[in-house]
TrEMBL record:
Belongs to the glycosyltransferase 28 family. GO terms for biological process: glycolipid biosynthetic process. Keywords: Glycosyltransferase, Transferase. Its EC number is 2.4.1.46. Pfam families: Glyco_tran_28_C, MGDG_synth. This is monogalactosyldiacylglycerol synthase. GO terms for cellular component: chloroplast membrane. Residues 294-380 form the Glycosyl transferase family 28 C-terminal domain. InterPro entries: Diacylglyc_glucosyltr_N, Glyco_trans_28_C, Glycosyltransf_28_UgtP.
Length: 475
């Protein structure tokens, strides 16, 4: 599980202001496929649920070759699919897994898998490395993100054919009855491969399929949305509206919020007690400076600017897994006014957040969601082009924080926030943050996923299905 934020920071080169770039990343068109073939034409809306009706001819379980007695004797299997394109998708998957286990114990067997790295052919399995290169070279990432929609769809079909054998083998090995995508590239290709398994008779009926969108704004990529899924869980109304524009029905889409670590749903100790427990100053203004799970981002320049501003406060600096950064920050002299508490890879981010008065971070959606739950005013200092740009107006429009692109402006804003004249507004920002937070989002998503799985199982059992061969040519 990611431990410093739900979205690991990228290098400074990857984080540019939209104002500096003079462009707005909006992704591809909302409607249709620009005259190209429609990938959903052969996978109609609610494909997974509607094909259950054919189960009356094929057996009650999802996977062929398993008796009802054998199936009923084991926990139902749930597969959480993600890709290591940053730390946020893995963190969201681990949050959902932890939520299911906390709610239901060992009733369900949950696999959390990097499907692209572990179960795709080379070079497709290098997606994580390719992503890291792209975001460090923002022009490359903008070209990929904003590529014409027909190009994305052609690539989906190509990847499905190229990886059909290996990805299909992974599904047969894991044998999920519920498949959950937590990544935008985990809808179109897996649904195609599952469709082919169905045609070959490997599947008696499709597993239930759900998407959990882990991007916070309507600027999220269109690949998140596929009409063939059973359910799509989104964080806010604007993302639901985009899903509907992409062809999903109102009934398919549910607003729950972003999945974050279950610890954030629990009541925290009073701030004074937390500070004493964590070894922090009890009466000082304290800011949390997050460098992400990999300890990347403009952390050193920001610290230097805060030092030069003369802002008198304590700073908790989370360096993540970057041991060299942690050592450097701990050894450097930051002047008499700036007192640092330097941490590496932490597993109690909820406590560190709850103990502080504001947070300085890049615009990762998971970190923003966690900060809102803790009532932290948010000072954004970087973002990944396109996918995180929309998070900045989200924070600003709800008046829970602001964005500053330069370390000098970040330092000036922090000094203003911690001034006596700004104390009332800082408290107001904290209250507004708590008002829009969704601390129960993870558990709400988990309950809905389990409900989908159990409803599907009950419907199949009630159909009184047999184990006759599949209808060839069906999807």
């Amino acid at each position: 599980m990611a431990v410093t934020s739900a979205d690991a920071c990228r290098s400074p080169e990857a984080q540019h202001s939209a104002a500096d770039s003079g462009s707005t990343c909006t992704g591809s068109s909302e409607n249709g496929n620009n005259g190209f073939w429609d990938p959903a034409s052969w996978i109609p809306p609610g494909w997974a649920s509607r094909h259950s009706s054919r189960s009356a001819e094929r057996g009650s379980g999802v996977w062929a070759g398993e008796s009802d007695e054998s199936r009923d004797a084991r926990p139902k299997r749930i597969l959480l699919m993600w890709s290591a394109t940053g730390g946020g998708h893995r963190a969201s998957a681990e949050a959902v897994k932890a939520g299911i286990e906390e709610l239901y114990g060992d009733k369900y067997h949950v696999d959390s898998v990097d499907m692209w790295a572990d179960h795709m052919e080379w070079p497709t399995n290098q997606l994580g490395k390719a992503y890291n290169f792209a975001v460090k070279n923002s022009w490359v990432w903008k070209c990929v993100f904003n590529a014409p929609e027909p190009l994305h769809e052609f690539n989906n079909e190509l990847q499905a054919k190229f990886n059909d054998k290996k990805l299909g083998a992974a599904f047969q090995e894991l044998r999920p009855e519920l498949v959950v995508s937590l990544h935008p590239v985990m809808q179109h290709v897996p649904l195609r491969v599952l469709g082919r398994l169905r045609k070959r008779g490997v599947l008696n009926r499709p597993p239930a399929f759900a998407t959990v969108v882990t991007d916070l704004s309507e600027g999220c990529h269109h690949l998140w949305f596929h009409k063939g899924v059973d359910r799509c869980f989104v964080p806010i109304e604007e993302v639901k509206e985009k899903a509907v524009r992409r062809g999903l029905s109102e009934e398919q889409v549910t607003i729950h919020g972003l999945p974050v670590r279950p610890a954030f749903a629990k009541e925290q100790l009073p701030k004074a007690e937390l500070r004493q427990w964590l070894g922090l100053e009890t009466d000082a203004k304290i800011a949390l400076l997050v460098g992400g799970g990999e300890g990347m981002g403009p952390l050193i320049p920001t610290l230097q600017a805060i030092k030069e501003s003369g802002c008198a406060c304590q700073l908790v600096v989370i360096c993540g897994k970057n041991a060299k950064l942690q050592e450097r920050v701990a050894k450097d002299d930051w002047g008499p006014h700036l007192r640092l508490c330097v941490q590496g890879f932490v597993t109690n981010m909820n406590e560190w957040m709850a103990a502080c008065d504001c947070i300085i971070t890049k615009a990762g959606p998971g970190t923003i969601a966690e900060a809102l739950i803790c009532g932290l005013p948010i000072l954004l200092n970087a973002f990944i082009p396109c996918q995180e740009e929309g998070n900045i107006p989200y924070v600003q429009n709800y008046r829970v924080g602001t964005y500053k692109s330069s370390p000098k402006d970040v330092a000036a804003t922090l000094k203003q926030w911690f001034s006596p004249e700004y104390e009332a507004e800082l408290r107001a920002m904290a209250e507004r943050a708590r008002e829009i937070a969704k601390p129960q989002a993870t558990f709400d998503i988990c309950r809905s996923l389990v409900e989908l799985l159990e409803d599907r199982t009950a419907a199949s059992s009630a159909a009184g299905v047999s184990s006759s061969p599949p209808v060839q040519g069906s999807v």
